[in-house]
């Protein structure tokens, strides 16, 4: 297709899409998030050219996350573009590092929260109900692959319209979901637009970048239209999820009781529900990022067979707890009086651990690998196909420390001998292999004598690493 046709094509496609999907209403105020990159710059230019025809009021918003020295210049670039377009604009700035520390988030989560909170604030300030972002077809495909690789258990693509993250009173609209990155790049060239380049997009240690630069080109050799195919998959799956959700709302949700942010689920009914409804229950009620298939599967197992007091944990301090004939879905955080420079867990924690997964507990992170990917990892010899659990102490727990020739002592005595303050003992993480304590996380990692070598048959090595996150 000749490049001179790109502008006409994208504008006509967008007009048809807005009308077919009812994305915008006449005279509606829109907050358009613009970073200065190819995608958002093209979106801002298209909407500017169509604003009179579609009777839209546009306000550009650009945000400096404070993560890169070039970010200030980039927001000033967007401000100048807005002035050239004769569009009102707002420039914002945040301290993502401080948000990460205060809210115990990953850096990516903290950046996303601060960005959407800024966009929501701009919308509230100008009286807008809609935020518009430049997510496109390739972003959609990469999101699907990212979720499949992570094993989220529920592959949710982006929608044309959805509630705005962290501001559900606002709409988030993505009008470019069927537009390719290639077309947006061609649009910028055709219209003389020079986007800024974010060097973090070239960092191959970031999973999404690896998918974009390595996996997508490889899949394109099999199907040149792979991005479009994954987009269709996302739409088909979304339609099926819509049908499931409607039935869920009508038949399951009325049985759930809520008190503040705690949910009470009748266990007898939970056991009768189809596993698809059980999975949807957790994703719907929690509505938080980084929930994996393993999180949900373990929660279902606890809900179906767990004894009184059994707990399954989710990210951000959420847990499912068995309480007699109820399942309690609640958010539990460590007491603010407890130290944050050492690994600790909420008392009565019991978490199913998978090899080659990473587990984030706010101020510390546990990684268990099948290979040694850094020199500081600690090897542990375990049987093949062994079950691994991370939990806190229980009555009658025993441990076989190194140097005692396999002799055991109670966890209580071990903690007393290591001068662990009594207030912390219920929060010390224990790693169990097939229900036997393999190591204790306190002032480093204390290995059990039973898991230090490979003298037993069918043994494999795993490698443990703990990262403590600095706070303040």
Architecture of the largest domain, CATH level 2?
3-Layer(aba) Sandwich
CATH superfamily of the largest domain: HUPs
CATH topology of the largest domain: Rossmann fold
User: Count of helical segments?
Assistant: 13
* Count of folded domains: 3
**Proportion of helical residues:** 25-40%
Strands ordered across the widest β-sheet: 3-2-1-4-6-5
Ends apart, CA distance between termini: 55 Å
- For the residues shown, what is the average pLDDT? 87
- How would you describe the shape? elongated
Query: Proportion of β residues?
Result: 15-25%
Task: Give me the Rg, rounded.
Answer: 26 Å
* Spans of at least 5 consecutive residues with low confidence: none
Largest sheet, if any? 6 strands, mixed
Q: How many β strands by DSSP? A: 22
CATH class term of the largest domain: Alpha Beta
**Secondary structural class:** alpha+beta
Offer a quick outline of the entry.
It is built from 13 helices and 22 strands.
Describe this structure in words.
The protein has a 6-stranded mixed beta sheet with strand order 3-2-1-4-6-5, with helices on both faces. Strands 7-8-11-10-9 form a 5-stranded antiparallel beta sheet. The chain folds into 3 domains: 235 residues, HUPs (Rossmann fold, 3-Layer(aba) Sandwich), CATH 3.40.50; 80 residues, Uridine Diphospho-n-acetylenolpyruvylglucosamine Reductase, domain 3, CATH 3.30.465; 119 residues, no CATH class. Helix content is 38%, strand content 22%. It has 472 residues and is α+β, with helices and mostly antiparallel strands. The longest helix is centred in the middle third of the chain and has 26 residues. Helix 4 packs across helix 5, helix 6 packs across helix 8 and helix 6 packs across helix 9. The model has no long low-confidence stretch (mean pLDDT 87). It has 13 helices and 22 strands.
């Amino acid at each position: 297709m000749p490049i001179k046709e790109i502008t006409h094509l994208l504008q006509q496609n967008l007009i048809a899409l807005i009308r077919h999907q009812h994305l915008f209403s006449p005279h509606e105020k829109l907050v358009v998030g613009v970073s200065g990159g190819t995608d958002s710059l093209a979106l801002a230019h298209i909407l500017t050219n169509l604003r009179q025809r579609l009777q839209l009021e546009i306000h550009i918003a650009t945000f400096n996350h404070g993560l890169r020295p070039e970010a200030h210049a980039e927001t000033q670039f967007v401000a100048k573009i807005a002035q050239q377009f004769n569009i009102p604009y707002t420039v914002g700035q945040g301290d993502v590092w401080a948000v990460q520390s205060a809210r115990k988030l990953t850096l990516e989560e903290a950046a996303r929260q601060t960005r959407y909170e800024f966009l929501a604030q701009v919308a509230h300030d100008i009286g807008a109900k809609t935020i518009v972002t430049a997510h496109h077809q390739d972003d959609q495909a990469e999101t699907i692959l990212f979720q499949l690789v992570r094993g989220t258990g529920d592959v949710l693509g982006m929608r044309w319209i959805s509630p705005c993250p962290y501001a559900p009173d606002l709409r988030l609209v993505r009008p470019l979901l069927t537009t390719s990155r290639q077309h947006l790049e061609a649009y910028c060239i055709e219209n003389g637009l020079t986007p800024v380049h974010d060097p973090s997009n070239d960092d191959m240690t970031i999973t999404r970048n690896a998918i974009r630069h390595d996996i997508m080109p490889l899949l394109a050799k099999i199907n040149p239209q792979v991005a479009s195919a994954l987009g269709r998959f996302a739409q088909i799956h979304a339609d099926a999820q819509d049908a499931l959700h409607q039935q869920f709302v009508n038949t399951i949700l009325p049985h759930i009781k809520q008190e503040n942010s705690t949910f009470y689920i009748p266990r007898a009914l939970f056991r009768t529900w189809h596993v698809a409804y059980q999975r949807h229950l957790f994703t719907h009620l929690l509505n938080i990022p980084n929930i994996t298939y393993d999180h949900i599967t373990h929660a279902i197992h606890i809900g179906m067979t767990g004894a009184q007091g059994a707990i399954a944990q989710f990210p951000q301090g959420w847990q499912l707890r068995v309480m007699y004939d109820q399942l309690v879905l609640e958010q539990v955080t460590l007491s603010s009086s407890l130290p944050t420079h050492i690994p600790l867990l909420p008392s009565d924690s019991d978490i199913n651990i998978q090899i080659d997964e990473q587990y984030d507990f706010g101020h510390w992170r546990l990684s268990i690998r099948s290979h040694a990917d850094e020199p500081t990892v600690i090897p542990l010899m375990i049987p093949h196909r062994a079950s691994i659990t991370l939990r806190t102490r229980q009555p009658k727990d025993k441990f076989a420390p190194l140097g005692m020739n396999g002799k055991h002592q109670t966890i209580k005595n071990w903690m007393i001998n290591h001068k662990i303050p009594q207030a912390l003992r219920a929060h010390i993480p224990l790693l169990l292999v097939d229900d036997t304590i393999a190591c204790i996380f306190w002032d480093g990692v204390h290995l059990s004598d039973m898991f230090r070598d490979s003298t037993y048959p069918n043994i494999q090595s795993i490698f443990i690493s703990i990262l403590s996150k600095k706070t303040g």
